[in-house]
């Protein structure tokens, strides 16, 4: 069972902000930074960048402070007997970079909403949200070398998946990140295991399968809706990836794992 005492997102503080609890809270505290900050770690004050998370156990020393004109964070103070928290493998009292900070921020927004609304399923909703949040934290801990380009790349990949029909080009994508096309292709594949244009193509084919399986559009209409200006090119890429033509897919509804 989880009991949230207080939760807040987008909490803004002035440049002199200091949070100092030498004996810690008598409950858990999770902090996610949106701006750089200084944290007391291993007996000294150390700087950490934006988009870090730090989990404090009950009665653990807490000290962090602003190191710029403004300090912004999301945070939750809570009690729990759930093993995914009490037996977590996350480092305690030591910030670590988040793999997907925007996703975590949305979870914080939902937690704040659930905490403030007295709904019938409030308790179970909070538990599911906290479990999901801790899963994302564990995923972040498994990531290595989250560099300065990681977050812009994540935003770019999200945009590709959400808008596959957009006329994506390597040059245009690189321009949004202010890097060269060659460098984009190198770091994109290193980060996600797929090239940026292959990601576009696979996203378009996923959308095409959705249209073919659940809508009455023609193949020509689907090609256009998925960002193809040439239906033959669409059919060729579709068969290359799925092993069947769009027409065959529509007629036989093969396994959706294709």
UniProtKB/TrEMBL annotation:
GO molecular function, one term: DNA-binding transcription factor activity
Domain of life per record: Bacteria
HTH araC/xylS-type domain ranges (all copies): 154-252
The keyword Cytoplasm is annotated on this UniProt entry: no
Record carries keyword Transcription regulation: yes
Keyword terms of this UniProt record: DNA-binding, Transcription, Transcription regulation
InterPro entries tied to this protein: Homeodomain-like_sf (IPR009057), HTH-like (IPR037923), HTH_AraC (IPR018060), HTH_AraC-typ_CS (IPR018062), Tscrpt_reg_AraC-type_HTH (IPR020449)
Pfam families: HTH_18
PANTHER family reported for this sequence: ARAC-FAMILY TRANSCRIPTIONAL REGULATOR (PTHR43280), REGULATORY PROTEIN POCR (PTHR43280:SF10)
Protein name: AraC family transcriptional regulator
